[in-house]
Amino acid sequence: MIGNEYAAKLYAHPLIKNLAKQNKLPSYIAPETLSAVLLEVVAKENGKKPFVAHKANELRGLVDKIDEKHPLKDILGALIDEGDAAASALKERLSGWFDEGMARVSGWYKRMVKIWIFGIAAVVTVSTNASTIHIAEELWRNDALRTQIAVQVQAAAQSGEVAKLEAGNMERLEAFPIGWKEVPTDLLEILKTLLGWLITAAAVSLGAPFWFDLLGKVANLRGAGGKAQTRQTS
Q1: What is the pLDDT of residue 164?
Q2: For 145-204, what is each residue's pLDDT tens digit?
């Protein structure tokens, strides 16, 4: 946002450098701190005196000394206000600009994380041939498998421990319809497999906490109900 040159000088400043361990970058910088430090770096580099020592009518000249090719010059030039409180206003506006920029960066980061998670989920889904459609079909036809899985999932959800899903003799679920047993050749089966992969990858990308909470709510809903009324005898 401010260029590599000023970013390096910013990280080298004691107020920023001491926010992290040695040879590490800080995980968070308050907008107010960044604004104050950046203006101080610019002032010392171009004005040879602290930023707080500059008067309001000197700020425009301070910014003019920044290299024409550097984007920071246009940024500060657009944020400068006239008046006696120009210095404090510049600090506040620069802080707001940084906060707004970090909000956009956070949005970009979240989108990239979702893309990576979906990609990893897709690789796992295809490698294990976990098609939601085929799994649903098998559970619909196989009453014994459906009952066995439902009992284990309900027990795990009620206990509040995901590990229960692995502790309940999972070897008995070898008939669970995942894995590469045969490659589909029929066009309809291929389309069903592709659609099933897409559904599975989308579901996996939501994360285990989401599905475990959902299982817990379903189990609680299933076990909820009104108390049986007892008949009173006179």
Answers
A1: 53
A2: 777 777 766 666 666 655 555 544 455 455 567 778 778 788 888 898 899 889 888 888
Place of tokens 């098609």: 131
d(CA 165, CA 145): 15
Cβ count near 51 (within 10 Å)? 20
Asked if 69 and 84 touch (Cβ cutoff 8 Å), the reply is no
Distances (CA, A) of 141 to 103, 138, 145, 220: 49, 5, 9, 26
Paired tokens of 81: 């206000």
First to last CA, the chain: 83
Residues ≥6 apart with Cβ < 8 Å to 212: 157, 162
Q: Yes or no: say if 121 and 201 are a contact pair by the CB < 8 Å rule.
A: yes
Cβ–Cβ < 8 Å for 133, 66: no
Q: Using one digit for the tens of pLDDT, what is the confidence trace for 126-136? A: 988 888 888 88
Q: For residue 145, what are its two tokens?
A: 């498998």
